[in-house]
Amino acid sequence: MPCIICPPELTFYKLSGSQVKDEWGLPSDVWSMACMIWEIVFSDVMLAQGSDDNNRLIYEMMKLIGPLPERWKPYWNSKTLMVQLCYGCNLTIDPDAAWKKRCPTENDGDATDGVITVVDLLRDMLCWELVARPTAADLLLHPWFAT
C-alpha cells in the first residue's frame, strides 16, 4: 500500500518491526479512502510531505489529527524529525489550524460550504483509533455523499 494512503496502524506495525498488534481491517480502508477523497476533490496528495520518510509521515498525520496515542509513541523517532525540520524547536500540533491552512478558500479568505462539508467528512474519517472511525454505512449518511 502506498505510504501516502497508509493508515497509521499499518505504519506503526511496520515501524515497530511487527511488535504492534496487527489491528487493521475495514476501518483502515476508511482512512485510505479519506486520503483518496482529498486527492480527488483537491487534486493534491494529503500526506505528500511524509511520503518517503515514516517519521515525517507520522508528524504530518499528527498535524491533522492531534497527538499520538501513548501505545505508539515508543515507535516514533521524533528526535530525528526535529533535527531534520528545525533543530531544537518544538513540533507544533494544532489540527484546527492545519486544516484551515490546507483548505482552499474563496477570494474573501473563507472556505466554501462544499469545502467545509468535505473537510468535516475527512476529519471524521481520519482518527487514530479504528473504533472511532465511521463505518461505510455511517459515511453514506454524511451530507457530502448526499450531494
Description:
- The chain is mainly α and 147 residues long.
- It is built from eight helices and no strands.
- It has helices at 8-15, 26-42, 54-65, 78-86, 95-102, 113-125, 136-140, 143-146.
Would you spell out the secondary-structure blueprint of this structure?
Blueprint: H1 8-15, H2 26-42, H3 54-65, H4 78-86, H5 95-102, H6 113-125, H7 136-140, H8 143-146
Helix pairs in contact: 2-6, 3-5
Features:
147 residues; mainly alpha; 8 helices; 52% helix
Summarize, please.
By secondary structure, this protein is mainly α. The protein has 8 helices and no strands. The chain is 52% helix and 0% strand.
Strand content: under 5%
List the helices and strands in order.
Answer: HHHHHHHH
Number of strands: 0
Q: Over the alpha carbons, how many angstroms does the gyration radius reach?
A: 16 Å
Q: If you average the pLDDT, what whole number results?
A: 82
- The proportion of residues forming helix, as a percent range, comes to 40-55%
What about the largest sheet?
Answer: none
- How many helical elements? 8
Form type:
globular
How far the N terminus sits from the C terminus, by CA atoms, comes to 30 Å
Poorly predicted ranges: none
Structural class: mainly alpha
